[in-house]
Amino acid sequence: MSQKCDVLIVGGGPAGLAAAIALRMQGADVLLADAIKPPIDKACGEGLMPDAHRDLAALGVTCEPAEGSAFRGIRFVNWTDGEPVSVSADFAAGEGVGMRRTVLHARLVERALDAGVRLQWKTHVALGSGVSLNSEPCRYRYLVGADGQSSRVRTWAGLDGGRLISKRFGFRRHYRIPPASHYVEVHWCALGQAYVTPVAPNEICVAVVTRHSATRMQRVIDAIPFLRERLAPIEASTRERGALTTTRRLWRVVKGNVALIGDASGSVDAVTGEGLAISFRQAGLLSHSLHNGSLESYAAEHEKTLQMPRRMARALLLMDAYPSVRNLAMRVLAREPKLFHGLLQVHMGEMNLPGFLLRNRPRLMSRLASSDIRASDKERASA
Ligand SMILES: Cc1cc2nc3c(=O)[nH]c(=O)nc-3n(C[C@H](O)[C@H](O)[C@H](O)COP(=O)(O)OP(=O)(O)OC[C@H]3O[C@@H](n4cnc5c(N)ncnc54)[C@H](O)[C@@H]3O)c2cc1C
Fold first, then answer.
1. Which of 12, 15, 199, 321 has the fewest Cβ atoms surrounding its Cβ within 10 A?
2. Contacting residues for 292 by C-beta, under 8 A, at least 6 apart
3. Higher pLDDT, 351 or 231
């Protein structure tokens, strides 16, 4: 007994399923295997940025309005500079959508089945001189590793070479209360960030990310007065889940007829909120490349999908690690919300970084030079 397909995808998370749908839409015979079975849940902030939302729609993945909750931008709140300092920006185009991972997974599976992808759950994938699925050999033209950040396909194919830039610890819980705003709110405290995403008209997802391995989710929530007070009277509606979040750069994501996608192919810290959008973008690139008969253009274009999110991750991780940088950045952004709006556009790929810097340099320099922004905490307290 043996199986045969054009493309074998190992891993049925968002990246694997999006790639399977995109490839099937181009006519490929696609077989996808995952070690576990749906509904597949995962610790995640559950925010789909407008570009991720658009890419999903292009794949034919639709969600009922009641299955998620739209958000119109991002709000940062800093709790480490005396009084809380906050700044918000709306997306220049489109809306984001908060959606439970289980709902997103169910919709992707439905669409994959509808498109004709062959799905094999609870499948043991053995990688040796050949590949077998539950002990049955499988022949393929291309193999795609979509098996997440600890990818076994990556190691098997000899693609582990690269650099781990950051590693943090993430957690998430849900609470049945109406969202406090139409934004994804990122609360910054000394222990890390807690971000709140509306995922239904009457439900929020709270995700916490911290660099301290011994810090637990509740400690971070307790360090943020707004969340502590809001969440204290309510019990979480789901059990806590945890996961590592990394920023990882790989030197190569293609070798022979093997390609990596999603977190298996490199990642950015969760605080960027970009993991899903990047996966969907890569799915489009991969199907386009294979449609043209090789993995060449995927290999050449893949790095671009991670370049800007990785830069943003670096900046956000600097704010996380250094309170003085965080406090200064937040004071500047709170005084100049247009800068925050511009940075969000850069993050979304709607403006390039040199263009943003060129346009905003004078504003940025004058703000950084102004004495009230630069004043130390002590000076400001005594003023
Ligand atoms: C705390 C936290 C918060 C986050 N918040 C956000 C957010 O708000 N927005 C956003 O866009 N992104 C967010 N992310 C990132 C996002 O979750 C990931 O980028 C996304 O899950 C990547 O999808 P994937 O399919 O590549 O990997 P995964 O979701 O990890 O899926 C991998 C799949 O491969 C399967 N698998 C693994 N090994 C094998 C094997 N050997 N054989 C067969 N199958 C296998 C697994 O069962 C799984 O189904 C967050 C991440 C964390 C940790």
1. 321
2. none
3. 231
Which pLDDT tens digit goes with each residue over 149-168? 999 999 999 999 999 999 99
Gap between the Cα atoms of 375 and 320, Å rounded: 20
CA dist 309 and 315 (Å) reads: 10
Q: What separation in Å is there between the alpha carbon of 149 and the centre of ligand 1?
A: 7
Best probe residue, ligand 1, of 100, 101, 109, 147 (max atoms within 8 Å of C-beta): 147
Helix (H, G, I), strand (E, B) or coil at 78: strand
What pairing do the DSSP bridges indicate for beta strands 241-250 and 258-260? Answer: unpaired
Name residue 269's amino acid.
D
Domain ranges of the chain: 3-312, 322-382
State the Cα–Cα distance between residues 339 and 289, nearest whole angstrom. 37
Report the top-level CATH class of 3-312: alpha beta
Q: Give, for 102, the enclosing helix (H) or strand (E).
A: helix 101-115
Please give the share of the chain, as a percent, with pLDDT higher than 70.
96
Report how far ligand 1's centroid is from the alpha carbon of 370 (Å): 43
The more confidently predicted of residues 365 and 322 is: 322
CB distance 269 to 168 below 8 Å: yes
Q: Cis ω on the peptide bond leading into residue 39 (within 30° of 0)?
A: yes
CA distance 175 to 206: 8
Q: Cβ < 6 Å from ligand 1: which residues? A: 10-16, 33-36, 40, 42-47, 125, 146-148, 152, 170, 172, 207, 209, 243, 245, 262-264, 270, 273-277, 279
From 8, 36, 44, 131, the mutation candidate for ligand 1 (largest count of ligand atoms within 8 A of CB) is 44
DSSP, collapsed to helix, strand or coil, labels residue 42 as coil
Rounded distance between C-alpha atoms, residue 293 and residue 333, angstroms? 47
Q: How sure is the predictor about 369, in pLDDT bands with cuts at 50, 70 and 90?
A: confident
pLDDT, the chain, mean: 93
Do you know the residue count of the chain?
Answer: 383
Q: Which helix (H) or strand (E) segment is 315 a member of?
A: helix 296-321
State the pLDDT at residue 360.
85
**Which residue in this structure is represented by tokens 């439905």?**
110
Residue range 208-260, pLDDT digits in tens = 999 999 999 999 999 999 999 999 999 999 999 999 999 999 999 999 999 99
